[in-house]
Design goal:
2 domains, AAA+_ATPase, 5-stranded antiparallel β-sheet, iron, globular, binds adenosine-5'-triphosphate
């Protein structure tokens, strides 16, 4: 089943500028992990922002799990799209414990289901013993796991990760990649990962797309590499 379908997406940051994303079409199936490569400024983060609803396209449409989230007549708010995000800096709330951070995204879940879901997520990322700690009491890799648990807790249809490894040192990066792959597979999560590092793609992704500056699309102007 197609989880993400993007058709003819065009976006500019200002009316006069040439488009950052130009007539981009792409789709992802359930459980696929796709790497997004491309030089700095080619529009990788912008693509994630468009999918998650943080930006509005000029043209085109996005459908998530069969539900249109943006087209020329419709704009669904980010919180209603079923999209989870993990940012480069993890964006954990410093004044909240690990448990509270994970709980934060569950306001729409029935109250009785929230605590069990937090527990399930802590188990998934193997952080059961760290639930009462604050982010500053965790290593970079542990913070990343918490960010992942928080993003997965509301059961998103798709997970978007923007440079999730860039704050980790090389040794940690390798083990975290393996852990991430296991966690994503366990959750059968469909995931898009922006990275500068082809090794990330080779270790985790089913395939990658490469964004080209000004013109970004799969196929003609973009490249698609099968890695697994
Ligand atoms: N808020 C903004 N206002 C105007 N232009 C922006 C804004 N954010 C990004 N841009 C521009 O849009 C283009 C694409 O930026 P984007 O952050 O998507 O690139 P990227 O491929 O993720 O880059 P990097 O690899 O450096 O993170 C760049 O030229 C950037 O300068």
């Amino acid at each position: 089943m197609k989880v993400v379908e993007i058709q003819n997406l065009t976006f500019s940051y200002s009316r006069s500028a040439s488009p950052t994303i130009d007539d981009f079409s792409f789709s992802m199936n359930t459980g696929e992990i796709v790497g997004v490569l491309g030089q700095s400024g080619s529009g990788k983060s912008t693509l994630l922002r468009l999918i998650s609803g943080l930006e509005m396209p000029k043209k085109g449409s996005i459908t998530i799990a069969g539900k249109p989230v943006v087209n020329d007549r419709l704009f669904v708010q980010p919180e209603d799209r079923g999209v989870g995000m993990v940012f480069q800096d993890y964006a954990l709330f410093p004044h909240m414990t690990v448990k509270e951070n994970i709980l934060f995204g569950l306001s729409r879940m029935a109250k009785k289901d929230r605590k069990p879901r937090v527990k399930e997520m802590l188990e998934l990322v193997q952080m059961e013993d760290f639930g009462d700690r604050y982010p500053h009491e965790l290593s970079g890799g542990q913070q990343q796991r918490v960010a992942l648990a928080r993003a997965l807790a509301p059961k998103p249809k798709v997970l978007l990760m923007d440079e999730p490894f860039s704050n980790l040192d090389a040794d940690l990066k390798e083990s975290i990649r393996e852990d991430l792959l296991l966690i994503l597979k366990k959750a059968n999560m469909t995931c898009m990962i922006v990275t500068h590092d082809r090794n990330d793609v080779e270790a985790i992704c089913n395939y990658s797309i490469t964004m080209c500056p000004l013109i970004a699309e799969q196929g003609a102007a973009g490249e698609k590499f099968q890695t697994l």
